[in-house]
């Protein structure tokens, strides 16, 4: 079983977004900081979640089909949209995220408060600050 935590950070004035991905398996952590193409926080949350699943799929390869993933997000819209497989203004992003989850045997999505998602949150903010410094 793998635990996947994702979070996005967006700077509205610049339109820059970045994400943090934290993968936990057998007490080992993989931490990733990514720059995102999204320019709003909601779209960034979907994008980083998709990237997290894509990275995890590459990491474990064929084992995906027998792997359960506990997915943690502090984004209510991502959590709700996955439960319904629908989001009025974000359907393409929902479909892309569901496709990234498809290789796994089972994905259990859990909304968590931001304070319980500090690992991914910190990575996202670090990535955003790095992107802002380069701009």
TrEMBL record:
Transmembrane segments: none annotated. It is an enzyme of class 3 (hydrolase). It comes from the Bacteria. Its EC number is 3.1.26.4. GO terms for molecular function: RNA-DNA hybrid ribonuclease activity. Pfam families: RVT_3 (PF13456). Residues 1-133 form the RNase H type-1 domain. Keywords: Hydrolase. SUPFAM superfamilies: Ribonuclease H-like. The keyword Hydrolase applies. This is Ribonuclease HI family protein. It comes from Levilactobacillus tongjiangensis.
């Amino acid at each position: 079983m793998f635990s996947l935590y994702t979070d996005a950070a967006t700077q509205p004035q610049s339109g820059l977004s970045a994400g943090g991905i934290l993968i936990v398996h057998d007490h080992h952590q993989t931490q990733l900081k990514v720059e995102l193409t999204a320019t709003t926080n909601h779209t960034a949350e979907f994008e980083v979640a998709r990237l997290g699943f894509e990275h995890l799929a590459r990491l474990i390869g064929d084992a995906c089909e027998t792997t359960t993933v506990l997915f943690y997000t502090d984004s209510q819209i991502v959590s709700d949209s996955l439960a319904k497989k629908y989001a009025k203004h974000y359907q393409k992003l929902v479909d892309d995220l569901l496709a990234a989850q498809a290789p796994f045997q089972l994905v259990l999505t859990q909304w968590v408060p931001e304070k319980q998602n500090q690992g991914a949150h910190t990575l996202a903010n670090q990535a955003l600050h790095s992107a802002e410094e380069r701009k």
